[in-house]
Amino acid sequence: MASTSDFPMLSVLLFWVCVNGYNEITMPQNEIDFTQISALVVEDEAGGVAIIGVMMRYLGIKTYINVTGEGVVEMALSMQPAPHIIFLDLMLPRSDGYKVLKAIRADKRLKTSRVVAVTAQDADSAIPKCQVAGFDAFIGKPLSRRRFPGQIRRILSGEPVWETYS
C-alpha cells in the first residue's frame, strides 16, 4: 500500500505549502468534517498523486494511494474506515478506470463509497461515458486548488459534480 510519503514530488510540494501556506483554498465552514473522511486515490502519475495528496492532507482527509489500478477493491476493504470517496484515474498502467469501477460496484461492502473519475481525457466524450458507467462524479485534470474542497463537499453530500478545470 503506497502512502503520500512514497513520492518525492509530494515532499517538495508539502514543503512549499508549509513555507508559503495554502491561502489559495478558501474553506467554507460548514457540514463536513474532513478529518472523519477517508479517501483512496487510484492514480499512476506522480504529479497527479502529489497534487491530490497535498490537497487531501491540507483538508485533513486520511488518504491511501494505489498507483497501478490492481487490487483496488482489496485495498479499499482493508482501509479503516472503508473509503468514503475514491478518486479513480481512467487511464492506468495495468487496468483502466472503467474496469476498476466495475469491480468496486460489484462489492456490496463499497456501495456507499463515492467514485469520482479523474482524467485529462476530453470531457465532452468522457463525461457521458462516465455517467453511463456509473461514476458518481467527474473532475477533469488539471484539478483546481480553489474548487477542489467544494467539489469534495458536494460529492460527499450526494450532489452531482461533472466538471472540468475551466
Short overview:
The chain is built from six helices and six strands.
Cross-sheet strand order for the largest sheet = 2-1-3-4-5-6
Beta-strand portion reads: 15-25%
Structural class: alpha/beta
Form type: globular
Using the coordinates shown, work out and report the CATH topology. Rossmann fold
Q: Based on DSSP secondary structure assignment, what is the total number of beta strands?
A: 6
Oligomer: single chain
CATH superfamily: Response regulator
Helix content: 25-40%
Please give the domain count: 1
CATH secondary-structure class: Alpha Beta
The appropriate CATH architecture is 3-Layer(aba) Sandwich
Could you explain how this protein is built, in words?
It is a single chain. The protein is an alpha/beta fold and 166 residues long. The chain has a single domain (4-14, 33-163), classed as 3-Layer(aba) Sandwich (Rossmann fold). The protein is built from 6 helices and 6 strands, in the order H-E-H-E-H-E-H-E-H-E-H-E. The protein has helices spanning 8-20, 46-59, 72-78, 97-106, 123-133, 148-156, and strands spanning 38-42, 62-66, 85-89, 114-119, 137-140, 161-163. It has a 6-stranded parallel sheet, sandwiched between helices. Strand 3, helix 4 (97-106) and strand 4 (114-119) form a beta-alpha-beta unit. Helix 1 (8-20) crosses helix 2 (46-59). The longest helix has 14 residues, at 46-59. It starts with 7 loop residues before the first helix and ends with a strand.
